[in-house]
Amino acid sequence: MAKFGKKISFLILLVCMGKPLIGQVDSLKLETVFNANFSILFDTKDDLGNWYFIDNQHNIKKYKENGKLIATYPNTRYGVATSIDATNPFFTLLFFQPQQKIIILDNTLNEINNFNLQDFDLFDARVACRSNDNNFWVYDAYKYQLLKISQQGKILTESLPIETFLGKSLKPTFLIEKNNKVFIGVENYGLLVFDNFGKYIQSILMPKSKNFKVDSDFLIFMDDNQNYILETTNYITEPLLSPKSTSPFIRYQQFVIFFDNQSFNIQKILN
User: Rounded to an integer, what distance in angstroms lies between the CA atom of residue 266 and that of residue 253?
Assistant: First the structure.
């Protein structure tokens, strides 16, 4: 266990070297991009700047960055999708954790495939995402392992059981592959980083972390009510400035979503 312990690194919130990830400003200048009259159950972006939302009717809606509605996936069969991985807009992955179901959509949100993970002898996958070769990563809570599986259900690679080197079991809420790294997000713990062969690299500890999101080559999350942005190639992390508002909001790198129970408003950061 000692050899893994040396790999665990603590989150450095103040970056001492390198170019800042964002401009250092005291306040945000915002400009409204678009509004929509539905509540958000989940939100994410793809690398082309398109937005994906789950509305209160469980539908998936895709918008261009300027607010034009591109497509809607009318989900009436499986309840609310647990997560959306839209890092490849031509292979959008929906994960339904209670049903252990994965659905794949094309760039117009037409269903092109679906998979029941129980057919692959997976009965307790907690999180799932797309791999960079359009297979799947899942975290198997029964075996405490990160698994990469093919669309035919074959295990392509697997990590050691996480308990063996962390000494504890975890309940992930987030999983994404970026820049040949796989990131597992665990609320009130932080991020576990693996390479794309399933080898554990390190932990980035954040004891009050939550609300993990992917935004291009960055991960965004909250820790102790402060938003942070993490660069996925070198793990440099910086605080993100929050808008001065009493309304609830979701922070992205260049956008802020203000929302309530009936609608939301997306504003672009100008500085």
Answer: 12
Q: Domains plus CATH for the chain? A: 9-171+240-269 (2.40.128.630)
- Residue 27 Cα to chain centre, angstroms: 26
Q: How far apart are CA 37 and CA 60, in angstroms?
A: 14
Query: What does pTM read for this prediction?
Result: 0.90
Distance set, CA 193 to CA 24, 138, 139, 143 (Å): 28, 14, 13, 18
The 3-state DSSP class for residue 118 equals helix
Tens digits of per-residue pLDDT, 45-73? 999 999 999 999 999 999 999 999 999 99
Distance CA 244, CA 257 (A): 13
Contacts for 146-152: CB closer than 8 Å, 24+ residues apart: 146/182, 146/184, 146/194, 146/198, 147/122, 147/198, 148/196, 148/198, 149/120, 149/122, 151/113, 151/115
DSSP state of 161: P
Strand partners, 190: 186, 205
**Each residue's pLDDT tens digit, 99-130:** 999 999 999 999 999 999 999 999 999 999 99
| Structure tokens belonging to residue 189 | 């713990």
